[in-house]
Amino acid sequence: MGVKGFVEGGIASIVAGCSTHPLDLIKVRMQLQGESNVRAAPAQLGSNIHVAGPPRVGPVAVGMRIIQQDGAAGLFSGVSATVLRQTLYSTTRMGLYDMMKTKWTDPETGNMLLWKKIGAGLIAGGIGAAVGNPADVAMVRMQADGRLPAAQRRNYKSVVDAISQMAKNEGIGSLWRGSSLTVNRAMLVTASQLASYDQIKETILDKGVMEDGFGTHVTASFAAGFIASVVTNPIDVIKTRVMNMKVEAGEAPPYAGATDCALKTIKTEGPMALYKGFIPTISRQGPFTIVLFVTLEQVRKLLKDF
Fold first, then answer.
1. Chain segment 134-184, per-residue pLDDT in tens
2. From CA 50, how far away is CA 64, in angstroms rounded?
3. Cα–Cα separations (whole angstroms), residue 262 to 39, 40, 190, 241, 257
4. Rg (CA), the chain
5. In the chain, what is the straight-line distance between the N-terminal and C-terminal CA atoms, in Å?
6. pLDDT for 209-246, tens place per residue?
């Protein structure tokens, strides 16, 4: 497929990313709930006592709060970063996966073994995440900014402004903050999402449950979205918090790294905190994956003769 696979994957990813951006924004805000308690109570980290904090609110309440504070347009805060992220990260992972799929597919059966699908997803996801990490950091910060008091907001004007300010004020290295988490998450989400979609779609067609059409694409993509959500939510919570942390000059950062963030989160909020935001995650991942693969299948039909 070559370049064509990158173009098809890029178009589908941008459409899916923009259409589900409000759900992703709500997910990020929910994942950051209770985080202030981690910073405010370091003395309790050595014990098993959970620090009480303000009551957590659900996705509908979070969405309504965003609209009340910033208007309906606030639901699309950071969408420019989403477009750049999908252009860099998803275009790369989708294109690379398509190349490996073409190369590793059995010419006799027309299918690829599951372990090869998973391997292709791990490789494609890791490379895509490394390429798109600066946009990922910018997206998380722009989405999280509205939850802060006005005096503490970063007030990035756009994704370009966010990236340039980070590079200027925190160094180039800040653009790859949390990159190990991003790469690990992307490897897991790509392997679970793309591999499961292909596998479930092949099973449906091979068993004659449905024909190759809209119904098959929706069924396979929703199942793939659910699997990806269960696999990646814990690392997504940690990634969000590490990327969003504010490092003040002369002060130790809130987290020393991914492991430190995970331990502090579990000790102060309990282990289920790693599944914080799961409802908006599956609410976003389900529609995102459906839009992604349905759009991809349609784009492939349109570009079939090119």
1. 988 888 888 888 777 788 888 888 889 999 999 998 899 889 887 888 898
2. 28
3. 13, 16, 22, 10, 9
4. 20
5. 10
6. 999 999 999 999 999 999 999 988 898 888 888 878 87
Q: Please give the Cα distance from 60 to 29 (Å, whole number).
A: 12
Can you read off the two tokens belonging to residue 278?
A: 């799961």
Cα 62 to Cα 12, 32, 92, 199: the distances in Å are: 28, 12, 32, 35
Q: Token match 């005096």: residue?
A: 151
> What is the spatial distance between Cα 128 and Cα 118, in angstroms, rounded to a whole number?
15
- Cβ(6)–Cβ(95) below 8 Å: yes
- The CA distance from 217 to 201, in Å, is 7
- Rounded distance between C-alpha atoms, residue 55 and residue 34, angstroms: 9
**Cα separation of 136 and 159, whole Å?**
10
**214-244 vs 179-206: helix crossing angle, rounded to 10:** 170
Contact 194, 121 (CB under 8 A): yes
Residue 140 three-state SS: helix
Structure tokens at 186: 């992307």
b/e map of 107-117 (b: 16 or more CB within 10 Å)?
Answer: eeeeebeeebb
3-state secondary structure (DSSP) of residue 227: helix
Count of CB atoms situated within 10 Å of the CB of 252: 9
Tokens found for residue 119: 């391997």
What are 176's two structure tokens? 């790859």
Please tell me the chain's helix, strand, coil percentages from 3-state DSSP, rounded to the nearest 5. Answer: 75, 0, 25
Question: How far is 206 from 293, CA to CA, in rounded Å?
Answer: 19
| Residue of 84, 87, 91, 90 whose CA lies nearest to 3 | 91
